[in-house]
Amino acid sequence: MQKMEAHYFHYNEDFQLESGDQLKGFTLKYCTFGKPNHDFSNVVWVCHALTGNAEVTDWWAGLFGDGSLFNPDEHFVICANVLGSCYGSTGPLSINPDTGEPYFHAFPQLTIRDIVNALDLLRESLGITHIQTLIGGSLGGQQAIEWALKRPRLMENLILAATNAVHSPWGVAFNETQRLALEADPTWLENNEKAGQNGLKAARAIAMLSYRNYNTYDVTQQEGTNENIDEFRASSYQRYQGEKLLSRFNAYSYWSLSKAMDSHNVARGRGSLQDALQNIEAYTHVIGVTTDILFPVSEQRFIARYVPNVTYEEINSTYGHDGFLVETEKIASAIKAFFRHKDKKKLVYDQGC
Asked: Is 321 an active-site residue?
């Protein structure tokens, strides 16, 4: 598989945040494969989820990569690690220019809008004037829908998977519960790269319950015997997931990005949710996962009800919210159907004119 190329964008001016705070410049790490056409008609921009990174072929393989729906022979694919994360972009462990030390807890609050504003500055620096397809799921979908409202004529196609127009009280409650786990770790208040590690493991175990569902665990973590009284498979699985995240993420970024997710509301400053969604001009395809309890399909149906040029599809999966990452064949099939429908609709319109 073709390796994505890593690049860095350095913004050296003050960057105003929605909170009223600011960053004195920032860095975004971004990865690309393929080459852009002269008119950018093959640009596919991917927005990643909470603990994702810029190397989309690592976590959305089957949808992106050699021989996949989005491949380097046909497309110029770009994915940037978001502000607040820990994979090369400015985040809580970056150096605070005011102190010469890492930000740690002093890192300012971010919103989805702040993240999108930074992505748009990267886009401008690259001279990209057209995005053929903007795609994201979960927190990535929140970025994509916000960006489609900020620059309604920038992207031709918008693909939103397992996401919403406003983060629900249910979603905020899940995130706050995870942050309570971080706060319960006695090391959390320390200015230390390893602060909150046990809290992060517990937070991730909590999150897994929202990423999957009852049936997922019933299928994958069922005991092979009736004799156990301890050391259950589900217990080991929860601990494993906590350790797995700990090996690649930090508690500060988890806190920061979960807060950003909570901030998501496309109606802020735009009237109602319905009014805001009606301003999306891109051809939009919304994908829901039937077993998703974190971003239930009612949220995707709501988006599809008010976006003007939209198609909607639900996929079946035993994996709950994580289905948008796991079920790549079904997601690819849904996207192909969207493109066929859109092209057919456009052909009929052109012939009518």
From this structure: yes
pLDDT digits (tens, 9 = 90+) for 190-239: 999 999 999 999 999 999 999 999 999 999 999 989 989 899 999 999 99
Q: Of these residues, 114, 185, 262, 292, which one is catalytic?
A: 292
User: Which CATH number is correct for 5-168+265-352, 3.30.470.10, 3.40.1190.10, 3.40.50.1980, 3.40.50.1820?
Assistant: 3.40.50.1820
The reply to whether 14 belongs to the active site is no
From the candidates 138, 210, 263, 317, which is the catalytic residue?
138
> At residue 341, does pLDDT exceed 90?
no
Tokens of 264: 């998501």
The CATH class of the 171-261 domain is mainly alpha
How far apart (Å, rounded) are the C-alpha atoms in residues 43 and 210? 33
pTM of the model: 0.95
Q: State yes or no: is 263 an active-site residue.
A: no
| Cα 54–Cα 60–Cα 66 angle in degrees, nearest 5 | 95
Selecting among 75, 264, 285, 321, the annotated active-site residue is 321
